[in-house]
Amino acid sequence: xxxFELFSLPINFNIDLALLNQAYLRLQKxxxxxxxxxxxxxxxxxxxxxxxxxxxxxxxxxxxxxxxEYILAERGVDIRAEQQTLQDPMFLxxxxxxxxxxEDISSxxxxxxxxxAFEKKIQMLEKDFHQQLTALIDQxxxxxxERAADVVRKLKFIYKxxxxxxxxxxxxxxx
Amino acid sequence: xxxxxxVLDHVENPRNVxxxxxxxxxxxxxxxxxxxxGDVMKLQLKISDDGIIEDAKFKTYGCGSAIASSxxxxxxxxxxxxxxxxxxxxxxxTAELELPPVKIHCSILxxxxxxxxxxxxxxxxxx
Lengths: 175, 127
Known about the structure:
The structure holds 2 protein chains of 2 kinds. Chain A is mainly alpha-helical. Chain A folds into 2 domains: 3-62, DnaJ domain (Helix Hairpins, Orthogonal Bundle), CATH 1.10.287; 89-174, Monooxygenase, CATH 1.20.1280.20. Chain A is 74% helix and 0% strand. Chain A contains 7 helices and no strands. In chain A, helix 3 (41-62) crosses helix 4. The longest helix of chain A has 33 residues, at 142-174. In chain B, a hairpin with a 5-residue loop joins strand 2 and strand 3. Chain B is of the alpha+beta class. The radius of gyration of chain B is 14 Å and the shape is globular. Chain B has a 3-stranded antiparallel β-sheet. Chain B contains 5 helices and 3 strands; from the N terminus they run αβββαααα.
């Protein structure tokens, strides 16, 4: 897998972010424009392209969802552009309830406590899905990878909840 | 991104927001979500014994296009038989609301919500 190879990292969903950052900085130094100031325009162009590739790779690998989607795509299960819907009534019912709960936070008497409690709930769900994903994504069988893809789809709703929670927090700070 | 006037109208005056008692045997519930954007949609249909949709309600957490798509289908399905409602295509919704290509998934969500509700109705009846 190109992106992992680029940073000399093992192909693994659980990535060492500190190592990733170190490798990123080291690589970007090698293609820094200053180093190519006296080189031919062709070499300058190549350096710029390499730098862009390094940035793309970092962008994908540092974000858990993008990283998971990348690994799955490389293993033959590409869900990055899919538009299909998720139909898991139990999961969606829970999501609906969490959204309702979040909606009520702004009008609560102690929104700060509620936000903290909600944040904990999201963390628990996220942790659970991350564990499931870790167990499934490094398998080679398609069945396991399809199940991993399903976990990624669900995780997207959890990240969306987190975005929405941040919005609520911001709106409370503005008041 | 600019919404069409029709989308804005549904967002400002959403039709049929709310919920029916899900334990009512004549009520079918369809729950769907779009992983692409994290939108969640609940569509409930009140269906008569002869399979006519008498009333519909929705609750959607999502962008304007998702809200408009679900609001629109609650209007469309009323008075239809479940078979007629199952014929509603996401392309009908996109055309009516003039949704841009990036919002097509919102119309797919609404189409699938109808289908999910009908599936729920059938499984309830077979019990």
